[in-house]
Request: fold
Amino acid sequence: MIRVCLPMHLRSLAQVGTEVQLEVPPPVTQITLLDALEAAYPMLCGTIRDRQTKKRRAFLRFFACQEDISFESPDAPLPDAVIAGDEPFLVVGAIAGG
Reply:
C-alpha cells in the first residue's frame, strides 16, 4: 500500500485524515499514483493536477524520501521506500506571500 499525505485543504475536501493508503498497480509513478488517488477520491480531480493537461498545479509540490520530486518526470518510478509503504508520498501546498 502506498501512503499519501495531503495538505489540510485537500484533506478537508476529501474528508480524510492526515494520510490515505492506496493500492497502485506497477509501475508506480507520479501519474499512476495520482490516477489512483483521483479514482478513490473523485472530489480531488482538478485540485492536484489540471483536468486537461494532467500537469501539477503551480502551488503544490511532491516529496518522496525527503526530496522534492515535483520537477522530475511524472513517468519516472517512485522510490522503492514509497512503493513499499515505508515512506509516504507527500503533496505539500506552497506558501506564497510578501
Observations:
- The chain has one domain: 2-93.
- The helical segments are 8-14, 30-40, 80-83.
